[in-house]
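Colleagues,

For the teaching module next term, I've prepared a clean inverse folding example: a structure given as tokens, and then the sequence designed for it. I'd like students to try predicting residues themselves before seeing the answer, so please don't circulate the second half yet.
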């Protein structure tokens, strides 16, 4: 990878492909609980948020060392963008289904790709701004902690979901 832009464009495609395939991993694994920690175990909106979150998290580990040294705020920016894209899924899903009065499969699929694209667009914007980049570098521990908290919540709520709408199948 030569540039941050190349890394982020590749990250979008990685997230789009892995997230698409991950929709089926739990079923393909024979409902293996380990697969269920990282991939949807139901059709709930919460479970579908994993389709963006975990591929982005995994992609953040593929940041080349040279690029990480040149751009020390890039990894936390990817994670912050990933959190934003993850939570964009329920915002768009409930907005669209509320406007349409029902769910539409192709709209739901488009929401995933829009959210995936938003991750890397936001990351690019965060990364380009020297001011934002400096703040992210200072607060990288908070970004890592928030990411770890979301991992724990995804793991916990995979098999012990609260009894609220976000965790129910639409």
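(Answer key — instructors only)
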């Amino acid at each position: 990878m030569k540039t941050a832009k190349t890394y982020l464009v590749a990250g979008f495609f990685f997230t789009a492909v892995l997230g698409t395939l991950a929709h089926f991993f739990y079923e393909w694994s024979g409902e293996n609980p380990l697969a269920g920690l990282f991939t949807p175990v139901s059709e709930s909106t919460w479970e579908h948020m994993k389709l963006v979150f975990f591929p982005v998290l995994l992609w953040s580990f593929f940041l080349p060392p040279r690029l990480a040294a040149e751009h020390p705020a890039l990894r936390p920016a990817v994670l912050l963008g990933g959190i934003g894209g993850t939570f964009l899924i329920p915002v768009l899903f409930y907005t669209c289904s509320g406007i349409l009065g029902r769910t539409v499969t192709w709209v739901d699929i488009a929401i995933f790709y829009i959210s995936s694209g938003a991750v890397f667009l936001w990351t690019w914007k965060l990364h380009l701004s020297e001011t934002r980049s400096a703040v992210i570098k200072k607060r990288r521990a908070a970004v890592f902690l928030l990411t770890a908290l979301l991992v724990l919540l995804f793991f916990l709520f995979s098999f012990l979901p609260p009894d609220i709408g976000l965790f129910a199948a639409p």
